[in-house]
Amino acid sequence: MALFFVGEYTGKKKWSAYIYLMLGTLEIVLIIITIVIIVCIAVFRRSIYFLVISTALGAIFSHRKDGGADDEAAINFDAVTDYTPIGAGVFGTVYKVNYAGRQYALKREKILAEDAQKTPRQITAYNTLKTLPCADNFVKIYGWRVYKCDFANTPPPAVANRIAYDPWLAKAVASLQKSEYCLDTLMELGGSPLGKYLEQCISMTSGGTNMAKNYNIIKQLLQIVKCTREHDILIGDLHAGNILLNEDQQVKVIDYGEIYTLSEIAALPDEGTRNFMNARFEYNDDLFGIIAECMYGQHTFETYLSKLKKFPDPAEMVTWYKSRGKWTEIERHLQNIFRESSLLSTIDKGPYHEIGKQIDFVGGIVDPAGATEFWQQYVPEFKDPGTLIPQDDLVFMLDNYWDMDALITRFTVQM
């Protein structure tokens, strides 16, 4: 402000102009000193005056408050305590932990040695996700670290059995087991896994299921996928184990290891599908993941995997549904889903992992009884307990596969 008056007094009272010039210079020096102090404190974070200064000057100077996903120095992982396992998957284990008097989730997983010197994909993906309009639907990451460890992940029996029959997973797991590096990621406790809710639904009669809650879950998932698609992002691994529900019934997505942008996907080798991800981004994989979770009867198949000796070939499914007169309708939906993809031309060649899942779930919608009978050939005790939403809603999802607005409207009205 002092500099503003310098010109006002120049030529009138030179001594006044000099005073205001000195005051203006002093103001600039004080601002520079203040900035230096804040930067030093932000780097070292050892001074008790940090909170006082950052609060007082917060309106003027920006400062990271939560440590951020790209600032592992903000978290002292040696002070994390009370590790309680709450979930395990193919690549890692999730714990409920205590840190600085609060509870968090911590995921521990092996990473390849060649990735140990890089910022993990999960972190770079989160740094993109937290800028989206739907950022609140993704579990917040507070900090991370990469270090040498002797951690050995122990996946659940059903997952372990799946690894044995899934070539891509088996190769990935074998590579990671040889690594001596771990990634710890400290996150918010986003809620309870959707899988647990699905299990509750399975135990209910159709009349006892909370349909309004089910529609709300599907609507939120559709809105999340619409948001990420509009920003050319594929979540890539959207399933019940990576979807949480908090106390307010808000959907939270976790596990960012398979998230890719369009430009990243274009550079990937053509490997068919990984879970619900197609390397060439030729169909809406995340929406297909939602449809699969709506088919929670198929989700229960995980409980039978320990008894499965082999995955069926897609060609067997085609023959089965042709014998039941349902293949023409199933193929029509698959063509709508895959559009110009070459995957349909490899039905008789590809394993279950690449296209069988899509045939499986679409077949389960078009011909539920036929789908159950098909799987009973492999696991006699297999039972299909139903779906999360009525069959006509599932058919609508297939018919309007590429119209996200129509799908969101459908489930908003149903609520």
Q: Which regions contain 5 or more consecutive residues with pLDDT less than 50? A: 1-17, 41-73, 272-283
Strand order of the largest sheet: 1-2-3-5-4
Mean of all residue-level pLDDT scores: 75
User: Percentage of helical residues?
Assistant: 40-55%
Shape: globular
CATH architecture of the largest domain: Orthogonal Bundle
What order do the SSEs take from the amino end to the carboxyl end, as H and E? HHHEEEHEHHEEHHEEEEHEEHHHHHHHH
Descriptive notes:
The chain is of the alpha+beta class. The protein has three domains: 2-56; 64-189, 2-Layer Sandwich (Phosphorylase Kinase, domain 1); 192-415, Orthogonal Bundle (Transferase(Phosphotransferase), domain 1), CATH 1.10.510. Helix content is 45%, strand content 14%. It is built from 17 helices and twelve strands. It has a five-stranded antiparallel β-sheet, with no helix packed on it. α8 runs antiparallel to α10, α8 packs antiparallel against α17 (404-414) and α12 (314-323) packs parallel to α14 (352-366). The longest helix is centred in the N-terminal third of the chain and has 31 residues, at 14-44. Residues 1-17, 41-73 and 272-283 have low confidence and may be disordered.
